[in-house]
Amino acid sequence: YPLVARQAAPHVVRISDVEFGSDEFVVIAGPCAVEGQDQIENAARVVQSLGARVLRGGAFKPRTSPYSFQGLGLEGIELLRRASLKAELPFITEVMSVDQVWELEPRVDAFQIGTRNMHNFELLKAIGETQKPVMLKRGFGATLREWVLAAEYIAKGGNHNIILCERGIRSFDPETRFTLDLAGAIWAKQETKLPVIIDPSHGTGLPELIDPLARAAAAAGLDGIMVEIHDDPDQALSDGDQALTSRQFKTLMSNLAPIVEAVGRRM
Ligand code: PEP
Ligand code: MN
């Protein structure tokens, strides 16, 4: 891995003024999907007031079923942009195609590459041609080597602003939605110079496992987490089963704080 392998200093990636891979442990939070103006603005307010640093929300959604809600598209990006300005938080959102890269580049603070697109090499190359920070999720069937080589594709184009995100791999066990590979995330942190975060929401699909895994990530020296929240999970248009309510998210943030402090970092 000539470009992303560990060098003397770890690489710090900035989304606006938020640093990944420095002494910050960064919490990214927001709904799975942008559903409307009130929903995303309320979520942004919660995210900001509880001390998370980056807003997330999907406008282009890679749904398993073509009959499920596919996201609000460009309108969703506009709603995200407004919510993010109001709450004074940068935002990240998923990009699914090469065309969307050029369309969204001037409109978003950071790109997310989802698990289903980790192997989309044309998409990786297009993002490599920008300087936009990008969070690269591990494919749920990808080896660690394939994940790091996907990052290498982006870096080879000249964009080194890459954050790796472990979001769970598919295993034989049906009790959790996916199997969050914490060991794999720690391996990636040790083997590359890139910041590494985990997504325990998709990684487990179970709200009650998100908080302990967030603390495990901080204790292990990883660089942050991304979690999904919703003010009314039963009514959510996607991933409601794994969404944290504001109250649960507040508990997570207060449980996380002492661990982050214990490892000499800040939130
Ligand atoms: C998401 O973050 O909402 C998402 C679709 O994630 P993943 O690509 O990990 O499934
Ligand atoms: Mn989701």
TrEMBL record:
Domain DAHP synthetase I/KDSA: 17-254
Pfam families: DAHP_synth_1
InterPro entries: Aldolase_TIM (IPR013785), Class-I_DAHP_synthase (IPR052899), DAHP1/KDSA (IPR006218), DAHP_syn_2 (IPR006268)
Coiled coil, from the record: none
Domain of life per record: Bacteria
Organism: Microvenator marinus
Gene of this entry: aroF
Xref: PANTHER family: PHOSPHO-2-DEHYDRO-3-DEOXYHEPTONATE ALDOLASE
E.C. code: 2.5.1.54
GO biological processes: aromatic amino acid family biosynthetic process
One function term, GO molecular function aspect: aldehyde-lyase activity
Protein name: 3-deoxy-7-phosphoheptulonate synthase
Keyword list, A-Z: Transferase
Major enzyme class: transferase
